[in-house]
Write a structure and sequence with these properties.
alpha/beta; 8-stranded parallel beta barrel; two-stranded antiparallel sheet
Length: 251
């Protein structure tokens, strides 16, 4: 399992939101310098999100995202405001290794297949969810500010035939809360898809990384585990180091 230190960008600054709430924000300075620090500490990947673009569809921080990709010698995956083929092409040609499609997958069901066909191994889909009143994992869109009416299971089923590099699954209610990952939800995702799964939301300690690295379910011909885990606030607040997270990620 790979560790993905997270850098969320708003108004050109590295920030963390609590449960995706734009009114509950902490700031952590220059995102490019933060990226360099994570890379220097041994991170195998970076996970970068343009929060402004996720919310509005306008790539406000795209230059900063590309600056990060140019500043480090490790792969960068990025999402937020990727609305169509042109956005995908611009990011990949600008030095990003992997692009994450979010809201656009629900708006344009053919986008994931087209993008994955043109860029094999470089397209992921982000599925960010809250549990609804019936306990279903409902996907939120537009920077997590709108309910989609679609469940994670439904969209995973539609994506079954698409050659994705990964599915990034975020438990919104746990994101930025340091309260531990949604192991039940992640196990359900692992059992519902053959795509590599990257977990996001709730990591607050090195023990949380160990638990995620050990998570596996019986699926198909054998056991399946997570391919990656994203963590942000725990790193910038010193609750977890990149070095310890990488070591704990090794199964």
């Amino acid at each position: 399992m790979d560790l993905y230190p997270a850098i969320d960008i708003r108004d050109g600054t590295a920030v963390r939101l609590a449960q995706g709430d734009f009114d509950r924000q902490s700031q952590y300075g220059d995102p490019v310098e933060l990226a360099r620090a994570f890379a220097k500490s041994g991170a195998p990947w970076l996970h970068v999100v343009d929060l402004d673009a996720a919310r509005t569809g306008h790539p406000v921080n795209r230059a900063t995202v590309l600056d990060i990709a140019a500043a480090v010698d490790i792969p960068v995956q990025t999402g937020g405001g990727v609305r169509g083929d042109e956005d995908v092409d611009t990011l990949l040609s600008g030095g990003v290794t992997r692009v994450i499609l979010g809201s656009a997958v629900l708006d344009d069901p053919g986008l994931a297949g087209r993008a994955a066909g043109r860029h094999p191994g470089r397209i992921a889909v982000g599925l960010d969810y809250r549990l609804d009143a019936g306990g279903r994992a409902e996907i939120a869109i537009r920077g997590w500010e709108q309910a989609s009416g679609r469940t994670v299971a439904e969209v995973l089923d539609e994506l079954a035939g698409v050659d994705l590099a990964a599915v990034v699954v975020t438990a919104i209610e746990r994101d930025g809360m340091l309260s531990g990952p949604d192991l039940v939800g992640l196990a359900a995702v692992l059992g519902a898809t053959a795509h590599p799964v990257i977990a996001s939301g709730g990591v607050g300690s090195v023990e949380d990384i160990r638990v995620l690295a050990d998570l596996s379910v019986e699926a198909g011909s054998g056991q399946r585990g997570l391919s990656g885990a994203i963590t942000g606030r725990a790193l910038v607040e010193g609750r977890l180091t990149v070095e310890a997270g990488v070591a704990a990620s090794a199964r």
